[in-house]
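[step 3/7] fold_predict: job queued, chain A
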Amino acid sequence: MYILEAHPTDVWQMQSNVKDNVLFRSPTNEAERFGVANACVRKLGIHFPALVDLINNQVEVAYTGWPDRLYLVGQGGRVLYKSTPGPFGFHPDDLAAAMKKLPRSAQ
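[step 4/7] structure written:
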């Protein structure tokens, strides 16, 4: 789920964002947010469907995903895995291990 931008250029930047050329201003509508999310998916090489929170940030508020976190949400909306806050708590291998524990029918 792509949610509220953590380091937009019109708020504040981390030096790593500048180095990696991850420079986006805060979207003001859904179309802009979808554009930023699409760039993120492409740059990260994500090969699974990505959902995007609407501009009202409903999902971000519900899951407290800011700054960034990895979640594995199972059937019925149950959270099966939640990472520590990122970017330093962003460990995709831990998420992969949680996914491997899923029953075959859920994969």
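[step 5/7] annotate
The chain is about 35% helix and 5% strand.
Helices lie at 15-19, 30-44, 58-63, 92-100.
exit 0
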